[in-house]
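User: Design a sequence. Structure:
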């Protein structure tokens, strides 16, 4: 049953990414997995519930992956590199989910939105701490801004897959690490300009 649910969620993610949440009916999702639309109600109570589980599970996977890497990696620079590689791999392997997350957070029910936001905040905090610890002189607001900027860069992959999978991964990892390592320079130049 779990694998059938995953199959349904994967099909729904592809359709939501292509046509938008409101542009997809339950019958289309059913057809994509070879059943009638109403048969999906054996697995999910509604299309809203599908979206809620989809976005919650993305957030749980990312948070779990981030926490596992933090737990096993003592060197802050290595941790940041591992977080970047993890996010890049997730984005490249799940472009439909990245698109759905980007476009459909506002379509979640309020309880699901609160849950997803709470998970996302915890994941961001793993990154903020890693950036702060690995980048000399960076303050917390700059680390937070840098984390969100890195997510924007990495998660743009559904719109920019011009290279093969490995080539795109290399470009994204190098760009993200380069951008994050420049955060301390930005923090210093901002500090210098405000002091004059």
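Assistant: Done.
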């Amino acid at each position: 049953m779990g694998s059938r649910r995953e199959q349904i969620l994967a099909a729904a993610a592809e359709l939501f990414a292509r046509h938008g949440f409101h542009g997809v009916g339950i019958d289309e999702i059913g057809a994509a997995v070879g059943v009638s639309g109403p048969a999906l109600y054996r697995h999910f109570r509604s299309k809203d519930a599908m979206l809620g589980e989809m976005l919650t599970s993305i957030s749980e996977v990312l948070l779990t992956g981030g926490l596992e890497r933090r737990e096993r990696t003592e060197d802050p620079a290595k941790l940041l590199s591992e977080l970047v590689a993890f996010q890049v791999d997730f984005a490249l392997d799940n472009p439909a989910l990245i698109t759905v997350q980007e476009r459909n957070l506002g379509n979640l029910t309020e309880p699901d939105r609160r849950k997803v936001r709470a998970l996302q905040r915890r994941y961001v905090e793993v990154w903020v701490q890693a950036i702060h610890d690995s980048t000399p002189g960076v303050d917390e607001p700059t680390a937070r801004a840098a984390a969100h900027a890195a997510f924007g860069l990495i998660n743009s992959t559904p719109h920019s897959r011009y290279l093969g999978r490995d080539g795109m991964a290399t470009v994204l990892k190098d760009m993200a690490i380069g951008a994050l390592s420049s955060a301390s320079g930005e923090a210093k130049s901002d500090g210098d300009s405000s002091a004059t």
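The first helix runs from residue 2 to 19. The chain has nine helices and no strands.
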